[in-house]
Amino acid sequence: MPVAISTDAAQTGWLKIKILGNAVAAGLVGQIYNPEGVLLQIVRGVLHMTTASTAASTFNIGIGATGVDADTLMSAFDMQSAAGTVWQVVGQDLASEGAATTPKGILWPATSYVTVTSAAQASTGLVCELYLQYLRLA
Amino acid sequence: MTTALNTDAAQTGWLKIDIAGNATAGGVNSLGYILNPEGVELQILDCYLYTTVASAAAATLDIGINATAGSDDTDMCAALAINAAAPNVKRICGGNVASEAALTGGQNGVKWGAAEYMCFYNPAAQISTAFRANLFVEYLRLA
Questions:
Q1: Would the CB atoms of B104 and A86 count as touching at under 8 Å?
Q2: The domain containing residue A107 runs over which residues?
Q3: Out of A103, B12, B58, B127, which could bridge B99 as a Cys pair, Cβ 3.0 to 4.6 Å?
């Protein structure tokens, strides 16, 4: 499974999703079903590149129904970004009383997925981790 | 050692570090350092300095991550005046970063290598006697 919830050590409140590249040139790489079964608000997100994709792949990552190409978390993000780099996923450039909507936060409905979709190039070789912190709105 | 991990009640995910000034002649000297407490690579996401007692003299504070204990490193905080009226709280790094931006540079967060130190240093010629503060650090385990 190229996209899976990590079973590494505890992350003190962060959901850790491991993403592995594959030979899919364009289409769904993988997805994660809402792990809480209730409406969530994703308040923070960080992407850590462990190994870059061999080819110049770009990913959309977002919230949607199963298999849907969604870019509400990251849009056409370069998966050849250097190994070891860390990227903001949920923008924290949000003033008091600002709407916490994409790309500065997003709702994750109880029966929706985080979907990871490749645009045009295969992502073979890619290893990265997506960390999400959320509030249970229930 | 004038810098130490704090052992007060749990901070629900925030590392709390006690910092104290000193009277070393000339002022320019290390205020202490903290070894990475997790032993794995960390990404510092947010950081606040709570000053409870101001420095008596016009000392300043550098904070940074370095492989060498006691180094003068400024990748988190550079020459911050620590003689302003206390109590006060200052944001040290993290915060105002847009989606898809790199989390590098002091203001945007910094990596803390598994065997590296967070170093506290007074780069000013003035001594830092009386200064007392807590640094609250929020991080993500990249392991």
A1: yes
A2: 3-92+100-136
A3: A103
